[in-house]
Amino acid sequence: MLETLPQASPDLEIIYRDEQLIAINKPSGLLVHRSWLDSHATEFAVQKLRDQIGEHVYPAHRLDRPTSGVLLFLLDKSYANNLMEQFAEQKTEKRYLAVVRGHIGEGLLDYALKKKLDKIADKHANQDQEAQEAQTYYKGLSFTELPIAVRPYPQSRYSLVELTPKTGRRHQLRRHMKHLHHPIIGDTTHGDGKHNQMFRDNFDSDRLLLHSSYLAFTHPVSGKKVEINAPLDKKFKALLATLELTLDI
Questions:
Q1: Which among 100, 101, 23, 36 is positioned nearest to 63, based on CA atoms?
Q2: How far apart are CA 186 and CA 11, in angstroms?
Q3: In sequence order, what are the residues at sequence separation of 6 or more whose Cβ sits closer than 8 angstroms to the Cβ of residue 165?
Q4: Is 105 helix (H, G, I), strand (E, B) or coil?
Q5: What is the signed CA dihedral for 55, 86, 231, 19, rounded to 10 degrees?
Q6: How far is CA 24 from CA 53, 54, 70, 247, in A?
Q7: Other C-beta atoms within 10 Å of 23: how many?
Q8: Are 51 and 9 within 8 A, CB to CB?
Q9: Confidence of residue 117 (pLDDT cuts 50, 70, 90)
Q10: Most buried of 57, 161, 165, 176 (most Cβ within 10 A)?
Q11: Which helix (DSSP H) or strand (DSSP E) does residue 86 occupy?
Q12: 98 Cβ neighbours under 8 A, 6+ residues apart
């Protein structure tokens, strides 16, 4: 019998479902599954979706806790290898939306990244590993300038950017945006603390402004291309409106 967890938040938004697969629009702050990274968390996407639909589900890929958007699960784990290979071999297509510091243009960043190791899970792994190739295509969609001082400047500039990772390194988008000097707002690890604080103080926004908006892959049974779109949540959309950052893609 399935153990039922307390329902402390609304049901997850299901954005795709067939006999083998199901996808949700994961809210920011929800862990995919139980993790030593946060022993205080009480809700997890795997258990919450399982309880919601009354079936076991198996994550097909990973999405960081602070990132919202498309999260794909298997209903039949016999197809796990097929999907895992597609993700591992970069045969999937992913697009993200993010709010970053400054005004950013368009280009392809080819900048290798060292593998991110967990202090506990990877404590016995070789800590001196070579950097892995990593490419991210970025495109500024909309731009704003606010009359709010963030030292050392009297105004602050931001962009809504579309990010398309060509590889799948851990925290790739966050690390690449930092390398470009356009860190993602709300990123407490690779971001800019002064701008993060400004968003908390002025816009009541303390989340990572990164959203997985699109995922495409080959269906493991039909062989057809599946495309899944995840709309921004109301709070994210309201923040864009306040910032006068328009989304038209």
A1: 23
A2: 25
A3: 94, 96, 134, 135, 136, 137, 172, 173
A4: coil
A5: -30
A6: 12, 15, 6, 22
A7: 23
A8: no
A9: low
A10: 161
A11: helix 80-88
A12: 160, 161, 163, 173, 177, 184, 185, 209, 210, 211
Which two structure tokens, joined as six digits, stand for 27?
Answer: 């809210």
pLDDT for 192:
97
Q: Which residues are catalytic?
A: 64
Residues 6+ apart with CB under 8 A from 87: 60, 61, 168, 217
Task: State in Å, rounded, how far the first CA of the chain is from the last one.
Answer: 45
Under DSSP, is residue 139 helix (H, G, I), strand (E, B) or coil? strand
pLDDT in tens, 33-64: 876 555 566 789 999 999 999 999 999 999 99
- Is the Cβ–Cβ distance between 143 and 161 less than 8 Å? no
Amino acid at 54: G
CA–CA separation, 117 and 212 (whole Å): 23
Residue 123 has pLDDT above 80, yes or no: no
Q: Please write the tens of the pLDDT for every residue from 152-184.
A: 999 999 999 999 999 999 999 999 999 999 999
Residue 33 token pair: 């599954």
Cα 125 off chain centre by: 26
The pLDDT value recorded for residue 149 is 96
Specify whether the CB–CB gap between 45 and 71 falls below 8 A.
Answer: yes
Q: Do 24 and 17 touch, CB atoms closer than 8 A?
A: no
Q: How far is CA 161 from CA 45, 56, 108, 137, 241, in A?
A: 27, 36, 13, 10, 15
| Cα separation, 76 vs 65, whole angstroms | 24
Amino acid making up residue 216: A
Closest CA to 41 of 66, 58, 61: 66
Q: Are 148 and 73 in contact (CB under 8 A)?
A: no
